[in-house]
Amino acid sequence: MADRPSPRALPDELPQEEAVTRYRRHAEIPGWHQDALTGATAVVVGVGALGTETARLLAQAGVGRLVLCDPDDVDESNLSRGALFTPADVGRPKAEAAAAALTALVPGVRAEARHAELSAGVGLAELRSADLVLSCLDSIAARVSLTRRCALVGAGLLDAGTHPWGGEVRHYVPGGACFGCGLTPAERETADDPWSCARPVAVASHGASAPVSALTAAWLTTTALRVLFGLTEPAAITRVEPVPGTAYRLAAERDPDCPLHERIEPESVTRTPVAAVDRVGELLALVAADEIALSWNPFGTPPPTTIRLRDAAPDATLASLRVAPRELIPVVVPGDPARTRYLELAAEGEGNR
Ligand SMILES: [Zn+2]
């Protein structure tokens, strides 16, 4: 992808000799490239039954950096299915509990928790930079939101879901069919758009047992690793059905009317030294008088009423308004869409100052 980091040799925290020993059985697998995993970043969106198992498998395989995003806390009912949760985690944010468990399980892994919904937890520049984005979500609305955000920055997406006795793994490549291509127009409506008042589609989530989640997560992770290794992996939908005992692929067909393929042109993006932890006034200093900088999430005293950042207190931090780390901030000029541009937030501590 656009600014994929070059692979590092091995994580600094893990002595070379220990790492070689840990992964020596991987070296016997045809096509396996441990270094490709060590330097990789995977974003896992949704840290429930499917997400925890997927994150565990990616970390144990040796993926060096995992960004875990989920707005929910661990509930008692998660303990029967979440691969990384213990009773002591009940009430704790899922992303934080999972990140802590991964760090204990795999020394050297960088597991970062984002206790937020996707559009507030992972910025568009992070999705663009990631080597893999994995959707382990439980609703159509959330998947549509992630699909749209990945398309905006040309990021591929691996999506998986479960039903009571089986699962599905969907591999989407940039420019090809997306999750939304298989939906009706009503199902595609989403609130993750600063110019839209559409509400997410309410979709009931279906429960699945731990083994079905683990089976689907294993299939998802196998596909993810092959993508990281550069092995041929077709864009397709794979259905895994333990009952009656089959797995088969379906072609993912592009719908020419699917509106989720809008792309932010790279030349419309300007990098800034401002990070999400910085103040609104610092960002607005980069915006012309006739321009309006927008948030992807409404903010303000409940209920949230505005997406115009100039409506916020200048000394408020962008993060307090639910602006994600490394977000691309839309800047528009009313009546002149050709002047729409984006300001890229810096990573925390990495601004050009
Ligand atoms: Zn589509």
TrEMBL record:
Gene Ontology CC entries for this record: cytoplasm
UniProt domain THIF-type NAD/FAD binding fold: residue ranges: 29-239
Single annotated GO MF: nucleotidyltransferase activity
Gene3D superfamilies: NAD(P)-binding Rossmann-like Domain
Domain of life according to the entry: Bacteria
InterPro entries (UniProt xref): ThiF/MoeB/HesA (IPR045886), ThiF_NAD_FAD-bd (IPR000594), Ubiquitin-activating_enz (IPR035985)
Pfam families the UniProt entry points to: ThiF (PF00899)
Signal peptide: none
This protein's name: Molybdopterin biosynthesis protein
Organism: Amycolatopsis vastitatis
Upper lineage: Bacteria, Bacillati, Actinomycetota, Actinomycetes, Pseudonocardiales
